[in-house]
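Target protein
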Amino acid sequence: MQHPKSKQTRDESMPDVLAGQFFHSTKETGAVEWQGYVIGSPQPGWYLVQLFEWLCGEPNLRRLVRFESMEHWLFYESAETMRFSYDYGTAREGGPHRPQTTLWDKKRPKMTHNGKYTSPK
């Protein structure tokens, strides 16, 4: 007899806790790869995500990703929290998920502690 918690599919009565979350996806190396928003789960084991452009932050394209591939992603409750993490938090330059400075890092405005942006140097 199979244990009830060993089901491979998500319990349909369980709310989709990832829907509505913002994220930074990570490569196998741990480096940040994408930024985006989880739209929802069209079927168990899959999520539809909206990706955002790195330069302007506008929605770009949507992708279906397997739940298993999201294990090491960084999730956030808001776009502001995601941006703050990229500038100062876990996903910051020099942090574990972004060890190298890129041209984009040098040119993009930075968010200050009061939510305003500084001009690039």
Notes: Residues 1-10 have pLDDT under 50 and may be disordered.
